[in-house]
Structures are given as C-alpha cells and as structure tokens.
Amino acid sequence: GLDTLKELRELYLDGNQLTEIAGLENCVELEHIDFRYNKISKISGLGTLDKLEWLYLSEQENNPLRVVLKELGKLSSVGYALEPQRFVLYSQQHD
User: Fold this and answer.
1) What are the beta bridge partners of residue 39?
2) Which of 3, 15, 46, 50 has the largest count of CB atoms under 10 Å?
3) Residues 16-20: contacts with CB within 8 Å, 24+ apart?
4) Which helix (DSSP H) or strand (DSSP E) does residue 54 occupy?
C-alpha cells in the first residue's frame, strides 16, 4: 500500500469517493496532499507528517476540517470549500 512509499512527496487522490484518510503514517516526506471531491469523514495518522504543508479537502460531502486542525498542528495551510462558491484557506504562522 501507500505506507511503503516512504519517499512520496505529493499525493493526488481527488475525485475518488474516499471516506477516510489513513495509512500514511510512514510517508514522512509528504508535503502536499490533494483529497478534493471525496467524502472524507475520518482522518487519522497524519500527525507524523512533519513536512506536510498543503492539504486540500475542498468539495467534501462531510466536514473534516476540525479533525484536521487538531491532528496537524504544524500544517501551514488547509484548503477547504464549505460551499462550491466559497473557498476557505486556513493559514497559521510557525516560528
């Protein structure tokens, strides 16, 4: 599975009807993940991805944003659309 791709830097799985993000704990080089246009309701195992900078979750049927923000304290940006016409970019500064 994906957990064997330890050098993976970018992952694009948009539009695949996924309901869960899991199993990426060993992909410690990941910097960008695109999960747009899915049905994500559960997120786990992303806390080990210290290099992750961008996580795209727009156009979800569910609202995983709160889970993401708790799981990924070091994340610099999260893209998420609450409605198709509105796009929210959450950013935080790190020292």
Assistant:
1) none
2) 46
3) 20/44
4) strand 54-56
